[in-house]
Amino acid sequence: MKFASLRKECYEANMELPKLGLVIYTFGNVSCIDRKKGVFAIKPSGVDYDKLTPEDIVIVGLDGRIVDGKLRPSSDTNTHVELYKAFPSVGGIVHTHSTFAVAWAQAARAVPLYGTTHADHLAADIPCTEFMADDRIRNDYETETGLQIIDCFKKHKLKASEIPMALVAGHGPFTWGATAAKAVYHARVLEELCKMAYITELVNPKVPRLKDSLIQKHYNRKHGKDAYYGQN
Amino acid sequence: MKFASLRKECYEANMELPKLGLVIYTFGNVSCIDRKKGVFAIKPSGVDYDKLTPEDIVIVGLDGRIVDGKLRPSSDTNTHVELYKAFPSVGGIVHTHSTFAVAWAQAARAVPLYGTTHADHLAADIPCTEFMADDRIRNDYETETGLQIIDCFKKHKLKASEIPMALVAGHGPFTWGATAAKAVYHARVLEELCKMAYITELVNPKVPRLKDSLIQKHYNRKHGKDAYYGQN
Amino acid sequence: MKFASLRKECYEANMELPKLGLVIYTFGNVSCIDRKKGVFAIKPSGVDYDKLTPEDIVIVGLDGRIVDGKLRPSSDTNTHVELYKAFPSVGGIVHTHSTFAVAWAQAARAVPLYGTTHADHLAADIPCTEFMADDRIRNDYETETGLQIIDCFKKHKLKASEIPMALVAGHGPFTWGATAAKAVYHARVLEELCKMAYITELVNPKVPRLKDSLIQKHYNRKHGKDAYYGQN
Amino acid sequence: MKFASLRKECYEANMELPKLGLVIYTFGNVSCIDRKKGVFAIKPSGVDYDKLTPEDIVIVGLDGRIVDGKLRPSSDTNTHVELYKAFPSVGGIVHTHSTFAVAWAQAARAVPLYGTTHADHLAADIPCTEFMADDRIRNDYETETGLQIIDCFKKHKLKASEIPMALVAGHGPFTWGATAAKAVYHARVLEELCKMAYITELVNPKVPRLKDSLIQKHYNRKHGKDAYYGQN
After folding, report:
1. Residue of B nearest to C227 (CA)
2. What is the pLDDT of residue D134?
3. Is D141:A156 a contact under the CB 8 Å cutoff?
């Protein structure tokens, strides 16, 4: 098997999605990139997780063309292409239709930062794109989906290395990370943050956003040069 | 065993319902039809899923009479009869009392199309029938339940081949598809769409319906001659 | 082991509660009665389900005194005594602190009959008692809990043979049936009805109660001389 | 292995958290103290539960310094230190980011005592601290988190021996008990109480707090010299 380790990383990360309750049927995909070779591995389109094998994983170039593999890649492949090109720190990307993240995306709202569980992972609201304009929909839709996220990050001056997740309005979540496993981790965390924020607003409709001093404290416990969480 | 493959298809589809969390106890039934022979296979009435065997499945004609089988068929059999007669593209039908779909049916609301997860499966709100009139209730109730769905589709000019699901007001969901397995798939998807729409409205009470251009784009990615999702 | 079959029935019904997700830790109890011998079997107080054995089950008389057993019976024993004395058709009783049923009990609201899932089991709202008066609390509290339920049934002219469940305001659910297994079935159904009604009201705050003609139709499909659901 | 039994108690209690659905990934920690030796055992920082071994557990003194162990202790260690120093009856402490407890903490609301499930465990609302002042955040944040809880208990005249849980505003829950296992029990109960109170308020926005006579009755059934719940 060519690209064996890249395919294996991609396969294993994909198989985490149903285990974590983030997808039903074929509702999701994970990719991971080999920056040196300029190719990424991605789930084939519409294949059930319980039938997926490492051999089924498709290898794609940054021009969106198949480099190796017998199956058609995920229909979202061009979204992954745009994100890999725009965000050089990203090593893996996940797309799911997980329940609470989709609900916030459908509600077209950024998820407010209400607590330290959120601030442990990112020091900003979880961004949500605009609804896509009709001319973009008529264009290459999946490429435009990636560009919507990138535009949103530019507009709000966000760094993909610091904000590892986004909601696409009316659609659902994309998450990323240094590796495919880390991107899956962010997909699971995002779903939890969306559920917590939902309950929080129902418990207290006037809940304030967490104050900046607490946000910075928690974010910096886990990230950056003064981090003191974990073993490294 | 007569009608062995039809019974087996029906049995296996029925057994998916408790695994998918769509039924407790005996709250549901699946049928599948052999159009050439003009008979369909359906779950027997009130039999627990963990005691069900392929032999227990009842074979029924399109007049609602038992063709083969030792047990009484589902009390909802006549609803299936009407749907098979009115919707010639349908090969399998599912009825459940899954939690979120029942809640929308009890609320007597069509489920608004809020996102692409919904549009990937149908390009319209999930229809909900009227409450049944008293004279119809006094009539053959299960036959009338089927007619309620058919009337609803006529009134709103919906095609059963494009809209594989309906809610019966005050009651619960029916779904269908080309096969029993596909009908079960739609039952699971319906439950998820109902849960997502419920959360969406609580996150944003003023949420707009997804715009048509996005609906058509997503529906056509997966359906029709220009579909490009999956491996075929 | 004395009263072996009664103890076994009681043990097995108790063990269903954690499997069905109706209890955590020791939050619940099931009893079943032998009307001829005038004794009932009940879970011992505060014993974890994973350590429970049939021998641990306590045999109690209708005066509330232990007839056989080494352990102290459930602290709710006297509630069971009152219900068995007042409701002669009852063969088994369940008390849980299941999440949605407790929430409705805390909200001190009868659960409105919103759909056929409810009407398949009872043709009335799920009754909720008054909050207990202070003099009754100072009295034998568990006996008074049973009397609260009985008073509620008298006041609303309900029959325990037709309404197999009640909520005690501020506390939680009691359910019953011809056997312990049937009482457990009603505990699971009650939890589902409470969850469905909760979601229904959030989906449509102005949802109407199901009309009587539909209620009677569904109740009579499953109960009484003209029932045609199931195999008997 | 030094401190073998303390490490084992701590390890086993930590391993309960993912089984009970109270943590995902590394979101939580349990400690337990040996009061005679003046040391406590605590989970190492950022280690996955499925890789955790008893040997990984860190032994820490009441000055917060490592006494034995190869790994860095939980970043929340100093919070545990303060609680052990202020609350001499406490033998074990748990911190989680369980969903409903975090939502109430983010909503910065004490959880009202709505029912007997709550009163069985504590006879007061579940307290919630103030948001931490900025000068305290700049100080030793984890020490200050413990002090916030202690201040809250002083202000409301609560006893840690009677109220085994607290919410830290904008952050999440801490629970405790005579042993680590008992502290885990309280973490699970807290999550259930938070879920029940959330649903209760949505079912009845005007729900009253449970009256004191019922609170005292239930609390005293399980606690104090006249308790009659359980086998002792």
Report:
1. B75
2. 97
3. no
Interface test with A, best of B16, B185, B203, B214 (most A CBs within 10 A): B203
Known active-site residue C229: yes
Touching D: A residues 76-135, CB under 8 Å: 114-117
Q: What is the pLDDT of residue A226?
A: 87
Question: Does B46 lie at the interface with C, CB-CB under 8 angstroms?
Answer: yes
Q: Which residues of D are catalytic?
A: 120, 229
| pLDDT attached to residue D211 | 97
Nearest residue of D to residue C200, measured between CA atoms: D203
Q: In this predicted model, what pLDDT tens digit does every residue of A11-43 receive, in sequence order?
A: 999 999 999 999 999 999 999 999 999 999 999
Closest approach of B14 to chain C, Cα-based (Å): 16
Determine the average pLDDT of the residues in D147-167: 98
In the prediction, which pLDDT does C232 show? 73
Contact B72, B64 (CB under 8 A): no
Neighbours of D, requiring at least 3 CB pairs below 8 Å, are A, C
Report chain A residues whose CB lies below 8 A from the CB of B181: none
Q: d(Cα A59, Cα A69) in Å, to the nearest integer?
A: 6
Q: What are phi and psi of A73, to 5 degrees?
A: -75, 165
| Contact with chain B for residue C221, Cβ under 8 A | yes
| pLDDT of C226 | 87
**Per-residue pLDDT reduced to its tens digit, B168-212:** 999 999 999 999 999 999 999 999 999 999 999 999 999 999 999
Q: Tell the burial category of D52 from Cβ atoms under 10 Å away from its Cβ (0-12, 13-18, 19+).
A: middle
- Which residue from C57, C52, C53, C54 is spatially nearest to C69, judged by alpha carbons? C57
Q: Are the Cβ atoms of C195 and B171 closer than 8 angstroms?
A: no
Q: Is the pLDDT of residue A232 over 80?
A: no
CB atoms within 10 A of CB B135: 9
> Are the beta carbons of A170 and B114 separated by less than 8 Å?
yes
Question: Quick one: what percent of chain C has pLDDT higher than 90?
Answer: 96
Start-to-end CA span in chain A (Å)? 35
Q: Which of residues 130-159 of A touch B (CB under 8 A)?
A: 131-132, 134, 137-138, 141
Examine the pLDDT at B8 and tell me if it is beyond 90: yes
Chain C, chain D: beta-carbon pairs less than 8 Å apart = 79
Contact (CB<8Å) A103/B200: yes
Distance from CA of D87 to the nearest CA of A (A): 25
DSSP string, chain B: -TTHHHHHHHHHHHHHHHHTT--STT-EEEEEEETTTTEEEEPBTT--GGG--GGGPEEEETTS-EEE-SS-B-TTHHHHHHHHHH-TT--EEEEE--HHHHHHHHTT--B---SHHHHTT-SSPBPBPPPPPHHHHHS-HHHHHHHHHHHHHHHTT--TTT--EEEETTTEEEEEESSHHHHHHHHHHHHHHHHHHHHHHHH-TTPPPPPHHHHHHHHHHHSSTT--SS--
Q: To the nearest whole number, what is the mean pLDDT of chain D?
A: 97
pLDDT at D113: 98
Looking at residue D224, its pLDDT comes to 86
pTM above 0.80, yes or no: yes
Report chain C residues whose CB lies below 8 A from the CB of B131.
211, 214
Residue B92 has pLDDT above 90, yes or no: yes
